[in-house]
Amino acid sequence: MHIINDKQLETSAIIFIYQTRVFSQIIYITTLVAIATLLVSLPFIHTTVSVKSVGMMQSNIEKIELFAPVSGKITKHSLVDNSKALKGELLLSIDENLPRQQEVIANHRKIELTNWLSDANKAINHINAMQCNLTTGLYTASWQQFNEQRATALSAQKQAFKIFDRYQTLYQKKVVTLAEYEEHKFNLEQRTSELEMVTKRYKTQWQTEAKQYRQELSELHNHEAQLKEQKSLYQLVSPINGFIQNPTGLQVGSFVQANQKICEIYRTARSLRFATSNHQILA
Question: Does the predicted model carry a pTM greater than 0.85?
Fold first, then answer.
Protein backbone atom coordinates (compact mmCIF):
# COMPACT_ATOMS: atom_id res chain seq x y z
CA MET A 1 0.00 0.00 0.00
CA HIS A 2 1.35 3.40 -1.11
CA ILE A 3 1.35 6.06 1.63
CA ILE A 4 1.13 9.76 0.64
CA ASN A 5 2.80 12.17 2.94
CA ASP A 6 1.50 15.67 3.77
CA LYS A 7 3.71 17.45 1.24
CA GLN A 8 2.57 15.25 -1.58
CA LEU A 9 -1.07 15.69 -0.49
CA GLU A 10 -0.82 19.49 -0.67
CA THR A 11 0.39 19.35 -4.27
CA SER A 12 -2.00 16.65 -5.41
CA ALA A 13 -4.73 17.24 -8.13
CA ILE A 14 -7.57 16.57 -5.68
CA ILE A 15 -6.53 19.42 -3.42
CA PHE A 16 -6.11 21.70 -6.48
CA ILE A 17 -9.57 20.94 -7.80
CA TYR A 18 -11.11 21.50 -4.41
CA GLN A 19 -9.36 24.86 -3.95
CA THR A 20 -10.33 25.98 -7.47
CA ARG A 21 -14.00 25.08 -6.91
CA VAL A 22 -14.17 27.02 -3.65
CA PHE A 23 -12.49 30.05 -5.26
CA SER A 24 -14.94 30.02 -8.19
CA GLN A 25 -17.90 29.84 -5.87
CA ILE A 26 -16.65 32.87 -3.95
CA ILE A 27 -16.28 34.85 -7.19
CA TYR A 28 -19.73 33.76 -8.47
CA ILE A 29 -21.48 34.70 -5.22
CA THR A 30 -19.65 38.03 -5.06
CA THR A 31 -20.70 38.82 -8.63
CA LEU A 32 -24.36 37.98 -7.93
CA VAL A 33 -24.41 40.17 -4.83
CA ALA A 34 -22.88 43.07 -6.79
CA ILE A 35 -25.46 42.75 -9.60
CA ALA A 36 -28.38 42.55 -7.14
CA THR A 37 -27.09 45.61 -5.28
CA LEU A 38 -26.83 47.54 -8.57
CA LEU A 39 -30.37 46.63 -9.64
CA VAL A 40 -31.82 47.67 -6.28
CA SER A 41 -30.00 51.03 -6.37
CA LEU A 42 -31.05 51.92 -9.96
CA PRO A 43 -34.22 53.88 -8.96
CA PHE A 44 -32.12 56.07 -6.67
CA ILE A 45 -29.53 57.00 -9.31
CA HIS A 46 -30.09 60.34 -11.10
CA THR A 47 -28.10 61.40 -14.15
CA THR A 48 -28.33 64.84 -15.77
CA VAL A 49 -27.23 65.23 -19.37
CA SER A 50 -26.62 68.77 -20.58
CA VAL A 51 -26.45 69.42 -24.33
CA LYS A 52 -25.82 72.81 -25.93
CA SER A 53 -27.02 73.46 -29.47
CA VAL A 54 -28.42 76.13 -31.79
CA GLY A 55 -31.92 75.52 -33.23
CA MET A 56 -35.49 76.77 -33.59
CA MET A 57 -38.53 75.79 -31.51
CA GLN A 58 -42.02 76.32 -32.92
CA SER A 59 -45.62 75.16 -32.48
CA ASN A 60 -46.73 71.90 -34.06
CA ILE A 61 -49.50 73.89 -35.78
CA GLU A 62 -47.69 76.44 -37.94
CA LYS A 63 -50.87 77.76 -39.56
CA ILE A 64 -54.63 77.33 -39.37
CA GLU A 65 -56.83 77.34 -42.45
CA LEU A 66 -60.28 78.89 -42.06
CA PHE A 67 -63.26 77.68 -44.10
CA ALA A 68 -66.79 79.04 -44.51
CA PRO A 69 -69.02 77.16 -42.03
CA VAL A 70 -72.20 77.67 -44.09
CA SER A 71 -73.29 78.94 -47.49
CA GLY A 72 -74.55 82.49 -47.85
CA LYS A 73 -73.88 86.12 -48.73
CA ILE A 74 -71.14 88.00 -46.90
CA THR A 75 -72.47 90.98 -44.95
CA LYS A 76 -69.26 91.98 -43.15
CA HIS A 77 -65.59 91.05 -43.25
CA SER A 78 -62.23 92.26 -41.95
CA LEU A 79 -59.86 90.04 -43.93
CA VAL A 80 -56.77 92.08 -44.74
CA ASP A 81 -53.58 90.36 -45.76
CA ASN A 82 -50.84 90.43 -43.07
CA SER A 83 -53.20 92.11 -40.58
CA LYS A 84 -53.19 90.96 -36.97
CA ALA A 85 -56.12 88.91 -35.68
CA LEU A 86 -56.87 88.40 -32.02
CA LYS A 87 -58.45 85.22 -30.68
CA GLY A 88 -62.25 85.57 -30.76
CA GLU A 89 -62.17 88.56 -33.14
CA LEU A 90 -64.94 88.62 -35.76
CA LEU A 91 -63.48 88.06 -39.23
CA LEU A 92 -66.51 87.32 -41.39
CA SER A 93 -70.31 87.59 -41.12
CA ILE A 94 -72.72 85.70 -43.38
CA ASP A 95 -76.33 86.75 -43.97
CA GLU A 96 -78.56 85.22 -41.27
CA ASN A 97 -81.81 85.78 -43.17
CA LEU A 98 -82.57 82.06 -43.60
CA PRO A 99 -82.21 81.03 -39.93
CA ARG A 100 -84.03 84.23 -38.93
CA GLN A 101 -86.99 83.30 -41.13
CA GLN A 102 -86.98 79.78 -39.73
CA GLU A 103 -86.98 81.22 -36.22
CA VAL A 104 -90.00 83.45 -37.02
CA ILE A 105 -91.90 80.48 -38.46
CA ALA A 106 -91.03 78.35 -35.42
CA ASN A 107 -92.19 81.07 -33.00
CA HIS A 108 -95.47 81.50 -34.89
CA ARG A 109 -96.06 77.75 -34.82
CA LYS A 110 -95.21 77.62 -31.12
CA ILE A 111 -97.84 80.28 -30.29
CA GLU A 112 -100.40 78.49 -32.44
CA LEU A 113 -99.76 75.12 -30.80
CA THR A 114 -99.86 76.64 -27.32
CA ASN A 115 -103.28 78.19 -27.97
CA TRP A 116 -104.62 74.96 -29.47
CA LEU A 117 -103.33 72.95 -26.51
CA SER A 118 -105.00 75.35 -24.09
CA ASP A 119 -108.36 75.09 -25.91
CA ALA A 120 -108.12 71.31 -26.20
CA ASN A 121 -107.62 71.04 -22.44
CA LYS A 122 -110.56 73.41 -21.83
CA ALA A 123 -112.83 71.34 -24.09
CA ILE A 124 -111.83 68.12 -22.32
CA ASN A 125 -112.47 69.60 -18.88
CA HIS A 126 -115.89 71.05 -19.92
CA ILE A 127 -117.03 68.01 -21.90
CA ASN A 128 -120.20 67.68 -19.82
CA ALA A 129 -121.01 71.40 -19.83
CA MET A 130 -123.15 73.20 -22.38
CA GLN A 131 -120.71 76.09 -22.90
CA CYS A 132 -116.95 76.53 -23.00
CA ASN A 133 -114.94 79.74 -23.37
CA LEU A 134 -112.58 78.95 -26.25
CA THR A 135 -110.20 81.39 -27.99
CA THR A 136 -109.18 79.67 -31.24
CA GLY A 137 -111.31 79.28 -34.33
CA LEU A 138 -110.31 75.64 -34.68
CA TYR A 139 -111.75 74.58 -31.33
CA THR A 140 -114.67 76.99 -31.44
CA ALA A 141 -115.82 75.20 -34.61
CA SER A 142 -115.02 71.79 -33.12
CA TRP A 143 -117.03 72.58 -29.96
CA GLN A 144 -119.95 73.78 -32.07
CA GLN A 145 -119.94 70.53 -34.03
CA PHE A 146 -119.80 68.57 -30.78
CA ASN A 147 -122.73 70.54 -29.34
CA GLU A 148 -124.83 70.00 -32.47
CA GLN A 149 -124.20 66.25 -32.55
CA ARG A 150 -124.74 66.00 -28.81
CA ALA A 151 -128.02 67.94 -29.07
CA THR A 152 -129.23 65.69 -31.90
CA ALA A 153 -128.33 62.53 -29.97
CA LEU A 154 -129.87 63.92 -26.78
CA SER A 155 -133.10 64.78 -28.59
CA ALA A 156 -133.29 61.29 -30.07
CA GLN A 157 -132.64 59.76 -26.65
CA LYS A 158 -135.36 61.85 -25.01
CA GLN A 159 -137.84 60.90 -27.74
CA ALA A 160 -136.94 57.21 -27.36
CA PHE A 161 -137.39 57.51 -23.59
CA LYS A 162 -140.87 59.01 -23.95
CA ILE A 163 -141.95 56.20 -26.28
CA PHE A 164 -140.40 53.56 -24.02
CA ASP A 165 -142.06 55.06 -20.94
CA ARG A 166 -145.46 54.93 -22.65
CA TYR A 167 -144.96 51.32 -23.81
CA GLN A 168 -143.72 50.34 -20.38
CA THR A 169 -146.99 51.56 -18.87
CA LEU A 170 -149.01 49.79 -21.54
CA TYR A 171 -147.03 46.61 -21.02
CA GLN A 172 -147.64 46.71 -17.30
CA LYS A 173 -151.38 46.96 -18.09
CA LYS A 174 -150.94 44.08 -20.54
CA VAL A 175 -152.13 46.19 -23.46
CA VAL A 176 -149.02 45.58 -25.62
CA THR A 177 -146.96 42.47 -26.12
CA LEU A 178 -143.57 41.71 -24.63
CA ALA A 179 -142.00 41.95 -28.09
CA GLU A 180 -143.23 45.50 -28.57
CA TYR A 181 -142.03 46.49 -25.10
CA GLU A 182 -138.54 45.02 -25.65
CA GLU A 183 -138.30 46.65 -29.09
CA HIS A 184 -138.75 50.13 -27.62
CA LYS A 185 -136.49 49.30 -24.68
CA PHE A 186 -133.75 48.29 -27.10
CA ASN A 187 -134.32 51.51 -29.09
CA LEU A 188 -133.89 53.58 -25.90
CA GLU A 189 -130.65 51.76 -25.02
CA GLN A 190 -129.35 52.33 -28.54
CA ARG A 191 -130.10 56.06 -28.45
CA THR A 192 -128.49 56.36 -25.00
CA SER A 193 -125.38 54.57 -26.31
CA GLU A 194 -125.21 56.94 -29.30
CA LEU A 195 -125.32 59.94 -26.95
CA GLU A 196 -122.46 58.50 -24.88
CA MET A 197 -120.47 57.72 -28.05
CA VAL A 198 -120.68 61.35 -29.20
CA THR A 199 -119.14 62.54 -25.93
CA LYS A 200 -116.55 59.76 -25.86
CA ARG A 201 -115.55 60.29 -29.52
CA TYR A 202 -114.89 64.01 -29.14
CA LYS A 203 -113.13 63.59 -25.82
CA THR A 204 -110.80 60.97 -27.33
CA GLN A 205 -110.19 63.22 -30.35
CA TRP A 206 -109.27 66.21 -28.20
CA GLN A 207 -107.02 64.12 -25.94
CA THR A 208 -105.18 62.75 -28.98
CA GLU A 209 -104.75 66.24 -30.43
CA ALA A 210 -103.49 67.59 -27.10
CA LYS A 211 -100.89 64.84 -26.96
CA GLN A 212 -99.75 65.67 -30.50
CA TYR A 213 -99.48 69.36 -29.62
CA ARG A 214 -97.31 68.62 -26.59
CA GLN A 215 -95.05 66.39 -28.66
CA GLU A 216 -94.69 68.98 -31.41
CA LEU A 217 -93.98 71.72 -28.85
CA SER A 218 -91.19 69.58 -27.44
CA GLU A 219 -89.75 69.10 -30.92
CA LEU A 220 -90.00 72.84 -31.57
CA HIS A 221 -88.07 73.52 -28.38
CA ASN A 222 -85.24 71.30 -29.62
CA HIS A 223 -85.47 72.93 -33.06
CA GLU A 224 -85.09 76.39 -31.51
CA ALA A 225 -81.93 75.23 -29.73
CA GLN A 226 -80.57 73.96 -33.06
CA LEU A 227 -81.42 77.25 -34.78
CA LYS A 228 -79.61 79.17 -32.06
CA GLU A 229 -76.56 76.98 -32.56
CA GLN A 230 -76.76 77.37 -36.34
CA LYS A 231 -76.90 81.17 -36.06
CA SER A 232 -73.51 81.10 -34.36
CA LEU A 233 -72.09 79.44 -37.50
CA TYR A 234 -72.91 82.52 -39.55
CA GLN A 235 -70.10 84.40 -37.80
CA LEU A 236 -66.50 83.33 -38.36
CA VAL A 237 -64.08 84.32 -35.59
CA SER A 238 -60.34 83.91 -35.23
CA PRO A 239 -59.49 80.77 -33.23
CA ILE A 240 -56.00 82.02 -32.25
CA ASN A 241 -53.82 85.11 -32.02
CA GLY A 242 -52.01 85.42 -35.33
CA PHE A 243 -51.65 87.10 -38.68
CA ILE A 244 -54.06 86.75 -41.62
CA GLN A 245 -52.43 85.38 -44.74
CA ASN A 246 -53.69 84.62 -48.25
CA PRO A 247 -57.31 85.84 -48.05
CA THR A 248 -59.29 84.70 -51.07
CA GLY A 249 -60.36 88.21 -52.13
CA LEU A 250 -63.93 88.02 -50.87
CA GLN A 251 -65.91 91.25 -50.52
CA VAL A 252 -69.13 92.31 -48.84
CA GLY A 253 -71.94 90.97 -51.02
CA SER A 254 -69.93 88.00 -52.27
CA PHE A 255 -71.50 84.57 -52.02
CA VAL A 256 -69.57 81.76 -50.32
CA GLN A 257 -70.18 78.05 -50.29
CA ALA A 258 -69.93 75.90 -47.16
CA ASN A 259 -66.35 74.63 -46.61
CA GLN A 260 -64.93 77.19 -49.04
CA LYS A 261 -61.46 78.30 -47.97
CA ILE A 262 -61.43 81.85 -46.60
CA CYS A 263 -57.86 82.51 -45.46
CA GLU A 264 -54.95 81.23 -43.37
CA ILE A 265 -53.89 82.43 -39.94
CA TYR A 266 -50.27 82.06 -38.83
CA ARG A 267 -49.42 82.14 -35.18
CA THR A 268 -47.88 85.33 -33.78
CA ALA A 269 -44.11 85.81 -33.77
CA ARG A 270 -44.06 85.17 -30.06
CA SER A 271 -44.88 81.56 -30.85
CA LEU A 272 -41.52 81.17 -32.70
CA ARG A 273 -38.37 81.30 -30.56
CA PHE A 274 -34.78 80.63 -31.43
CA ALA A 275 -32.60 78.60 -29.12
CA THR A 276 -29.04 79.93 -28.83
CA SER A 277 -25.95 78.22 -27.59
CA ASN A 278 -26.66 79.52 -24.09
CA HIS A 279 -29.92 77.55 -23.80
CA GLN A 280 -29.75 74.22 -22.07
CA ILE A 281 -32.01 71.33 -23.02
CA LEU A 282 -32.31 68.77 -20.26
CA ALA A 283 -32.92 65.14 -21.14
Answer: no
